[in-house]
Amino acid sequence: MRASLIQIAVNEDESVGERRERVGSLVREQAGSADLVVLPELWTTGAFAYELFADEAEPLEGPTFAAMAKAARDAGVWLHAGSIPERDPEGPLYNTALVFSPDGELAAAYRKIHRFGFDKGEAVLMSAGEELVTVRLPETVLGVSTCYDLRFPELYRGLVDRGAETLLVSAGWPERRRSHWTLLAQARAVENQAYVLACGSAGTHAGVPQAGHSIVVDPWGEVLAEAGAGEEVLRVEFDPARVAETRDRFPALKDRTLGLAPPR
Ligand SMILES: NC(=O)CCC(=O)C(=O)O
Questions:
Q1: Spatial distance between the Cα atoms of 66 and 136, rounded to a whole number of angstroms
Q2: 178 Cβ neighbours under 8 A, 6+ residues apart
Q3: What range defines the domain where residue 187 resides?
Q4: Which residues form the CN hydrolase domain (predicted)?
């Protein structure tokens, strides 16, 4: 499979509308060179631009949904379109990731379970999702997660129990904790014997420089590709069959003894 992780720069000198248009074009540019495209978390506003969340919140099928569905269809790719500040019809906001099939249909929506900020920011402005989300592609099963989720290994075990082989992380991870990002991406890959495709953002918004350094890790924990700090399209080719091979040759997942379901 060929994947493109588009590490978008989220800076305040670009409007949400301008960025939406630019990102649509970047996705279209992957036509013919990617099967799967992954975008960062909350790239319309910036993951730390808390004061924009309410104003820029959209219904699930709002302008970002429409632009990304079209971009997926135009490019003929599976698109993890990052996440949007979603306003539920009942009122609450969610940090919601959208995955589209190559014909532009919504394949899955994932409401971020672990909200960042302790007692402020996202943690108080957004409601928490409750459902784990996987997406079956012809070549692999995707497990969907968002940013701060990366710190919670039990979420990924839950995804593996649901068949996930390729773990996607869409993030707006700050530069000041970049070492955690790289370490945790490798840890999630090794412990779950799965690919990890983690797409962060670049630029600076709300005074928070972003780490960039999107990363792709194989089921043995080796880094297949890593971006720099700025806006970049990180392209990688990976073999989904290596997940089953790794799990067969080094069957650590089968030795789980804490009463959890073995992986399917
Ligand atoms: N947007 C986020 O979830 C940020 C997470 C983060 O900064 C951290 O886990 O560290």
A1: 22
A2: 211, 213
A3: 2-255
A4: 1-240
**43 within domain boundaries:** yes
Query: What percent helix, strand, coil does the chain show, rounded to 5?
Result: 30, 30, 40
Bridge partners of 264? none
Evaluate whether residue 118 is within a structural domain.
yes
pTM over 0.95: yes
Torsion angle (degrees, nearest 10) of CA 244, 249, 254, 256: -110
CB of 177 within 6 A of ligand 1: the answer is yes
Active-site residue list: 41, 112, 147
Domain count along the chain: 1
What 8-state DSSP symbol labels residue 261? P
Read off the tokens for 42.
């909350």
Tens of pLDDT, residues 146-166: 999 999 999 999 999 999 999
| DSSP 3-state of 160 | helix
pLDDT in the model for residue 118: 94
CATH classification at residue 52: 3.60.110.10
Quick one: which atom of ligand 1 is closest to the CA of 122? 1
